[in-house]
Backbone:
């Protein structure tokens, strides 16, 4: 039993090395340290969410490093890390992907000693708590995958070590978006998503691993079943959850499913749906079109996600130094404030706070009514004075996290079941 | 090509007996022919046969979250057909193929009807060649914008508060918006017709232009009604065009998942979508197995079509 497994693994490693060679990067010899005086360019792989021209411009100004964005969708990030680790210099990936990224051995642990603000990273990541209070850790909570046993280890460490998998960039807690003008009554629970009252006017996202979690939130809200871990269901639990979804679909509950940001915005803005899973910036987008839309805090809590910077194993020399410089810069405040102003949360709160106006901080992070008009980074007015952020303060919101986006052990089975749901 | 080879022949041949010389000449000619076919053959090999072979191989491999393992297994195919033999409820794969087949038939019938009519009009009713060219070009105008844009353009039209519903309501024809206009089978088929009719028009028009006009005169002289001429003369002579158009449309719809996704609101199953989801989760072997099954299905469809018409003879 053991020998064939070993030989298979070596075969794969061989194939991996060959692929590395084919990609034209000396995966075997490593990069020679480039000492030339030419400016460094970092190829930044990630989703479009955290990639902004403003950040790239500011980095160029402050550090002289050129950031070359490679914007792809979440799935594509993982695919690239596993299959083409030489095609980027720094990756911005979701924490839940780590379970499939780290075993590939293509990412290395980051040296906490080289990250100046490492010990100031919010305890949401390091300990799974906010303001001293434990938060939900179902699914792939970042604290479960935050540390590695060693720099080149593919195993996550149970207690803090010097080696960090991803340095957090942004994170947030998701809930349902609703059209208060069309629903005309308060919505307080996840179970409203499948309430027949909204037949033909509901939507969920067609990303299996996230969609099933939203469905699980509904199942729990109806009191039908309580999962030991929504982010890691057994086959029987997957069947149970999918059955609920399939029944709702056959009864005509859903208007459509969405897969990208713009689809969700269009569904909501055009009135095709009145309640759906949504992302916070999409809600902002709908509102900016003059359509009432609320990111509704619900009593069962939120489904959280987090992304962070990772480094490929092949990165060495000047580029590696540049990557650390960039990450240190990212945590030093300007970028954090920039992201906080868009409704995301940044990893090191105190440096971000120093870069924000007190009234901005009060609105975004403390859940207080805006003293002045709240402006987006491009200068347009986002919220009028007096507005309050959905979900309240940082502590209220992150404190109410029920589960984290995840990859289940039964992932393959779940994907098969999801296809069955779409075909139902 | 043969003229290049020809001058060398008489000089080499006369001394020896004729047959070996001839054989050598044929050999050379054959080699030349292979040489000429080589560039296309190579392209075919590199971009078609090799990927296809790789897909086939990978479809038998094992996989987990982060790697594919080169070990032979039939599990991927077992997963594709999971529950299909147990009877009772239809399994996912059959259900998906059935839904895809439905769109194929609806799309095919509609594009054939429209495509044939349009081609007929341009080929037989329009007298001047210049006008024919102009009208033919007009048929291709929809292709000046991208596929996805042409699809998305339908959404504000068909939506719950879209133009069509608004118009019908303001005319007092309906009281509540028709929900089934968008994100339904109807909108998917509509988009397929919009996207694919040109692929029917072009080959059918091409076949029609080759029909000898005297045949139609002869039919009329022999006392055939216009319908009889159409059915007994024109349609049979258009068969190759119809077959080629059908192959285009059927294969396009079979593999499509963008149209079904966008117009069907992502909640209608299509084989392409299943494959896409599996790829997204790095389940390449499972996706490969599905792709092989899809390829088989398309090939069966095309084989059936070529059974009806011997394409090579007709061309």
Residues:
């Amino acid at each position: 039993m053991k020998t064939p497994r070993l030989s298979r693994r070596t075969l794969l490693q061989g194939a991996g090395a060959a692929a590395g060679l084919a990609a034209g990067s000396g995966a075997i010899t490593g990069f020679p340290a480039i000492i030339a005086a030419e400016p460094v360019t970092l190829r930044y792989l990630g989703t479009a969410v955290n990639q902004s021209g403003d950040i790239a411009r500011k980095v160029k100004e402050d550090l002289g490093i050129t950031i070359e964005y490679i914007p792809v969708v979440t799935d594509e990030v993982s695919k690239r890390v596993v299959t083409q680790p030489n095609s980027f210099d720094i990756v911005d990936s979701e924490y839940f992907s780590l379970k499939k990224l780290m075993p590939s051995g293509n990412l290395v642990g980051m040296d906490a000693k080289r990250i100046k603000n490492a010990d100031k990273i919010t305890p949401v990541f390091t300990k799974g708590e906010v303001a001293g209070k434990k938060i939900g850790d179902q699914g792939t909570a970042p604290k479960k995958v935050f540390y590695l046993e060693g720099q080149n280890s593919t195993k996550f460490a149970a207690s803090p070590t010097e080696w960090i998998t991803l340095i957090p960039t942004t994170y947030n807690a998701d809930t349902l978006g609703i059209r208060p003008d069309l629903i005309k009554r308060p919505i307080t629970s996840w179970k409203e998503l499948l309430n027949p009252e909204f037949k033909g006017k509901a939507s969920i996202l067609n990303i299996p691993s996230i969609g099933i979690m939203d469905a699980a939130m509904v199942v729990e809200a109806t009191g039908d079943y309580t999962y030991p871990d929504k982010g890691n269901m057994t086959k029987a639990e997957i069947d149970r959850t999918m059955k609920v979804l399939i029944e709702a679909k056959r009864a005509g509950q859903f208007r459509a499913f969405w897969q990208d940001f713009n689809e969700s915005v269009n569904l909501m803005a055009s009135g095709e749906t009145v309640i759906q899973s949504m992302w916070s910036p999409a809600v902002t987008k709908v509102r900016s079109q003059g359509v009432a839309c609320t990111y509704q805090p619900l009593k069962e809590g939120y489904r959280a996600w987090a992304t962070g910077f990772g480094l490929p194993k092949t990165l060495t020399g000047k580029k590696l130094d540049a990557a650390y410089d960039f990450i240190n810069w990212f945590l030093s405040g300007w970028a954090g404030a920039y992201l906080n102003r868009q409704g995301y949360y940044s990893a090191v709160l105190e440096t971000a706070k120093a870069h924000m106006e007190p009234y901005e901080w009060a609105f975004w992070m403390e859940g207080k009514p805006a003293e002045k008009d709240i402006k987006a980074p491009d200068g347009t007015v986002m919220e009028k004075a007096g507005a309050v952020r959905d979900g309240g303060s940082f502590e209220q919101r992150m404190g109410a996290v029920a589960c984290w986006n995840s990859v289940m052990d039964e992932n393959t089975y779940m994907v098969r079941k999801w296809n069955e749901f779409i075909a139902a | 090509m043969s003229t290049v080879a020809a001058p060398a022949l008489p000089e080499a041949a006369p001394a020896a007996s004729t047959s070996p010389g001839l054989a050598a000449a044929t050999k050379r000619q054959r080699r030349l022919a292979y040489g000429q076919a080589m560039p296309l053959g190579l392209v075919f090999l590199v971009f078609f046969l090799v990927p296809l072979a790789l897909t086939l191989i990978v479809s038998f491999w094992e996989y987990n979250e982060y790697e594919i393992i080169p070990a032979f297994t039939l599990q991927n195919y077992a997963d594709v057909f999971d529950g299909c033999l147990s009877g009772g409820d239809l399994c996912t794969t059959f259900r998906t193929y059935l839904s895809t087949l439905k769109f194929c038939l609806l799309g095919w019938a509609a594009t054939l009807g429209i495509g044939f009519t349009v081609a007929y009009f341009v080929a037989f009713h329009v007298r001047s060649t210049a006008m024919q060219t102009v009208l033919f070009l007009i048929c291709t105008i929809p292709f000046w914008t991208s596929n996805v844009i042409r699809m998305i353009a339908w959404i504000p039209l068909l939506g719950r508060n879209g133009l069509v519903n608004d118009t019908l309501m303001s005319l007092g024809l309906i009281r509540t918006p028709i929900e089934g206009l968008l994100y339904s089978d109807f909108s998917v088929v509509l988009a397929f017709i919009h996207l694919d009719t040109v692929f029917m028009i072009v080959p059918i028009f091409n076949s029609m232009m080759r029909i000898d006009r005297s045949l139609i005169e002869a039919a009329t002289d022999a006392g055939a009604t216009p319908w009889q001429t159409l059915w007994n003369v024109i349609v049979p002579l258009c068969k190759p065009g119809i077959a080629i158009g059908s192959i285009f449309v059927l294969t396009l719809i079979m593999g499509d998942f963008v149209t079904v996704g966008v117009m069907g609101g992502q909640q209608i199953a299509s084989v392409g979508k299943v494959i896409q989801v599996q790829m997204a989760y790095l389940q390449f072997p499972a996706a490969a197995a599905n792709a092989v099954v899809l390829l088989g299905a398309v090939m069966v469809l095309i084989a059936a079509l070529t059974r009806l018409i011997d394409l090579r003879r007709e061309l």
Chain A has 16 helices and 20 strands.
